[in-house]
Amino acid sequence: MEDDHISCGDESQSLSDEQIKDNILTMIIAGQDTTASAITWMVKYLDENQEVLEILKAEQFSLAEKSSPNSFLSLEDLNDMSYSSKVSPKLRLRYALQTRYKIKKGWNINIDARSIHLDPTVYNDPDKFIPSRFDDESKPYSFLGFGQGGRTCLGMNLARAMMLVFLHRLVTTYKWKVIDSDSSIEQWALFARLKSGCPVHVARIRDDVVRS
Ligand code: HEM
Q1: pTM of the model
Q2: Ligand 1, closest atom to CA 160?
């Protein structure tokens, strides 16, 4: 019988059980909850900001009309979603960096990206959902959702791709209404997550555009 084992090359390069476990945990903790939370905020903010939703719909429908129904989205399609890729919410509620404190060896320091994104000394109308606000070239590094520098999120491009595919499917196939306007945030979550879980009413708008 032919050997159907998939070779991983040099055995000494294989991952240990411990490393495999770490990678799985990374996917679940760093990868899944973050993306799920970001998508929840997108659904909420888009429902509350119909003018933004209209611009997004125009981009997504023009893309859907250009390609055949039921075809998969390609990388080029994702690159054509320039407005949609800005619809990335302010998330990650973490504790603030207090410069008054001495930072001891071994401490973990987290930048409170959400407070920076909502800082009125940096942005006009910080509470307004303006997806293009981070385009301002005079304010480099102002979008901190994925971190910056040497430890920038490793899954950033994967997360963006997942969010864009989700947005495309949602916007071109369904309309939705958030049915619980409670905006209170779970107190002990690592990043900003709605207590209500953001329940929505969803209705199909058209059958001819179904893509994945
Ligand atoms: C919307 C979704 C996501 C958000 C908002 C997010 C955000 C972040 C942030 C703020 C950091 C810390 C950066 C720093 O310390 O400066 C980080 C690190 C990291 N993220 Fe994500 N992330 C997301 C999705 C993902 C996904 C899908 C994966 C993997 C499948 C992932 C894997 C990682 C890893 C491995 C690190 C550690 C990088 C390092 O320390 O070198 N993330 N992420």
Answers
A1: 0.79
A2: 1
Find where tokens 């070239």 sit.
137
Tell whether 9 is covered by a domain: no
> Any known ligand binding at 8?
no
ipTM of the predicted structure?
0.96
What is the 8-class DSSP label of residue 31?
I
In a domain, 10, yes or no: no
Tokens of 100: 């008054």
The answer as to whether 148 is a domain residue is: yes
Closest residue (by CA) to atom 27 of ligand 1?
31
CATH code, domain carrying 71: 1.10.630.10
Q: How many CA atoms lie within 13 A of 183 on its CB side?
A: 5
- Ligand 1 closest atom vs CA 148: 16
pLDDT, one tens digit for every residue, the chain (212 residues): 444 444 555 666 789 999 999 888 888 888 888 888 889 989 999 999 999 999 999 999 999 888 777 778 899 999 999 888 888 554 443 434 445 677 788 888 777 787 888 888 888 888 888 888 888 777 777 788 888 888 888 889 999 999 999 999 999 999 999 998 778 888 776 677 888 888 999 999 865 544 43
The CA–CA distances, whole Å, from 189 to 74, 86, 165, 195, 198 equal 34, 24, 26, 10, 15
155 close to ligand 1 (CB < 6 Angstrom):
yes
Which range of residues forms the domain containing residue 23? 16-204
**Pocket of ligand 1 contains residue 147 by CB under 6 Å:** yes
